[in-house]
Structures are given as structure tokens and as C-alpha cells.
Design a protein that fits this description.
The protein is α/β, with parallel strands linked by helices. 42% of the residues lie in helices and 19% in strands. It has a seven-stranded mixed β-sheet with strand order 3-2-1-4-5-10-11, with helices on both faces. Strands 7-8-6-9 form a four-stranded parallel β-sheet, sandwiched between helices. Helix 2 crosses helix 3 and helix 5 crosses helix 6. The protein is elongated, with a radius of gyration of 22 Å. The mean pLDDT is 98. Bound molecules: 6-O-phosphono-beta-D-fructofuranose. 6-O-phosphono-beta-D-fructofuranose binds next to loops.
Length: 320
């Protein structure tokens, strides 16, 4: 049976990653395994920045955002020669298996390592909720909370000044943060890759909200990478009765203390990852489906198409 495992965080950080590191470490130690932290993602693996983790080392972190292990993106990990260096570092320390906490890019690295004899289990750590093998990713709930908090505040000031706030949220081409936030904040308009961005139509709707509905404010939530929100806010000022203002929430969405939901999700997923490794299983990623913790082969997971959010969009439209 596996005796020594490693854990790393990779890609963009997400609140709840620390809770996952803690769960992996404590469950593994309590099962008689030794645990090593691999610092700065795959980069640290290649460089040999790997240290033992104790129960105390992961104490007092369940409530902390970010990742105590540090994270990095390493596109070069696609090269076999780079991965061979990483595998050598693991062999030197007798580390036989790894838990990789990150997004789909990190999963590809995990599969490649598994193919090279190091069993890896992926945990979905990203605020984007763009991993299709799970209903929710670790960090999504916290990022949503941050957005809702910010938009609630923007609504206050927008109402006072008869303004339209255009709020750009993250998601890396996945509209989940935008549509969930739109519903939770009672926004007037939401634009995601699924709805598209029809400028003329949105301006028309804003004019109706002003003239017919006599709204004191309007909130437009837009997924990143769809349009220049500053320019769009200027067009709102020129073409509607609202004065437009843009807010790009940016990396503030990636920080903060994880919500209880993210902490519990990370803990449940961390436990599952260790259990899989103890059964000698690798090349799988952990997810949650209908509130059950499941695992899916990584190769299959990377090819699952994104489920349509039409129902949520319809709900949003019926709430405006
Ligand atoms: O994947 C998480 C994420 O925050 C995306 O929402 C965003 O597009 C991207 O990472 C930003 O990356 P970086 O932190 O490297 O600028």
C-alpha cells in the first residue's frame, strides 16, 4: 500500500484550498501515511521544493484564503523532459502519489504524472466553477459571496445617483459566477458566454428600465473577456437616462476566508482523494454530484461538455 503522498496547489488560487490541504494531510496522517507538501505547484515539484507536513503545520489554516503551499502556472509541464525532473524529485523522497488541487490545466499534469507511474488524484480548486465533472468547485461559493457583497454595496450608491453599475466578474469564459451572482443580487441584466453580449439590445433594455419601470438604479453583471466594461459604461451614459459606471472586481474575488460550504466541500473532497490513493487508484478527479462525493477518470472528466445554464437564465429573466 502507498506510504508517502504529496499534496500541491496549482493554477489560480481559490479560497478553500487550505481547507483541502488540511483535510488531505490530516486524513492521510490519521491513516498511517506520511505527507509532503509540494510548494509552488508543479514548479516546486521540478525544483524539489518539497517538505514534510505535520498535523501542526496545517493547523489554523481552515479559515484562511489563498494557499499555504503557494501556487504557480507551469505551461512547460507539458514537456516530458520537465516532468521527468519532477518524477525524479519524487522518487528521491520516496513519494509515490500526489493530490493535485487546481483547475483543468492542473488535471492534465496530474494525468501525465499518473501515466509516468505516480498516481495522482485531482481536486477541483478554482473560483470559476468551470470543471464539468463536479457540480461545484472549491472556492466558487466564497467568490460568489465576495461578488454579492460588492454588488450589494454598488447598488446602494447606484440608487443614490441614478446610475447603472456595470460589474465585471471572473470566470474564465464560464458564466457561473455571473449568473449565480445575478440571481443572488437581483441584478437587472447578466451577460455570459451563453447569453452573449448584444450591446444595442442591452441599451434598449436599460432605457426601458429607466423610462417605463422608473428604476433608480440598474446593475449589469458581465463575465470577464466579453467586452470593455469602461467603454460600455460610457455608452450607457450617452445612450440612456442612467449615468454609467464600471467596476472590475478582479482578484479581490480570489481572496478571503472561505465560506463554511467551501470548507466542508474541501474537507469531504480531501478525504476522498486520500481514500482513492490508499486503494492504489490514480488518474481520477474528485467531484460532488447531487451532494454525493464522486470520482471520475481525469481523461473522461476533461471531455464532459459544460451543462447548459438555460434554466438559471430563465429564472433570472423571470425575476427581473
Ligand atoms: O481561474 C481563476 C481565474 O481567476 C480566472 O477567473 C481568471 O480569468 C484568471 O484566473 C486570472 O488569472 P491570473 O491570476 O493569472 O491573472
Amino acid at each position: 500500500m502507498v506510504k508517502r503522498i504529496g499534496v500541491l496547489t496549482s493554477g489560480g488560487d481559490a479560497p478553500g484550498m487550505n481547507a483541502a490541504i488540511r483535510a488531505v494531510t490530516r486524513v492521510a496522517l490519521n491513516s498511517g501515511l506520511e505527507v509532503f507538501g509540494v510548494y509552488n505547484g508543479y514548479k516546486g515539484m521540478v525544483e524539489g521544493y518539497i517538505e514534510p507536513l505535520t498535523k501542526a503545520a496545517v493547523g489554523d489554516i481552515i479559515d484562511r484564503g489563498g494557499t499555504i503551499l503557494g501556487s504557480a502556472r507551469l505551461p512547460e509541464f507539458k514537456d516530458e523532459s520537465v516532468r521527468l525532473k519532477a518524477v525524479e524529485q519524487l522518487h528521491k523522497r520516496g513519494i509515490e502519489a500526489i493530490v493535485v488541487i487546481g483547475g483543468d490545466g492542473s488535471y492534465r499534469g496530474a494525468q501525465a504524472l499518473t501515466d509516468m507511474g505516480i498516481n495522482c488524484i485531482g481536486l477541483p480548486g478554482t473560483i470559476d466553477n468551470d470543471i464539468t465533472s463536479t457540480d461545484y468547485t472549491i472556492g466558487f461559493d466564497t467568490a460568489l459571496m465576495t461578488i454579492v457583497d460588492a454588488v450589494d454595496k454598488l447598488r446602494d450608491t447606484s440608487s443614490s445617483h441614478h446610475r447603472c453599475s456595470v460589474v465585471e466578474v471572473m470566470g474564465n469564459r464560464c458564466g457561473d459566477l455571473a449568473i449565480w451572482a445575478g440571481i443572488a443580487c437581483g441584478a437587472e441584466i447578466v451577460c455570459t458566454s451563453e447569453t452573449g453580449f448584444e450591446e444595442t439590445e442591452i441599451l434598449e433594455r436599460l432605457r426601458d428600465l429607466d423610462v417605463i419601470r422608473k428604476k433608480r438604479h440598474a446593475i449589469v453583471i458581465i463575465s470577464e473577456k466579453m467586452t470593455d466594461v469602461h467603454q460600455f459604461a460610457r455608452k450607457i451614459s450617452l445612450n440612456t437616462g442612467f449615468s454609467g459606471r464600471a467596476t472590475v472586481l478582479g482578484h479581490v474575488q480570489r481572496g478571503g476566508s472561505p465560506t463554511p460550504s467551501d470548507r466542508v466541500l474541501a474537507s469531504r473532497m480531501g478525504e476522498k482523494a486520500v481514500d482513492l490513493l490508499m486503494q492504489g487508484i490514480g488518474g481520477q478527479c474528485v467531484g460532488i454530484k447531487d451532494n454525493r462525493i464522486i470520482s471520475t477518470p481525469i481523461e473522461e472528466a476533461l471531455n464532459i461538455p459544460r451543462a447548459s445554464r438555460k434554466q438559471l437564465q430563465n429564472l433570472f429573466d423571470r425575476l427581473v
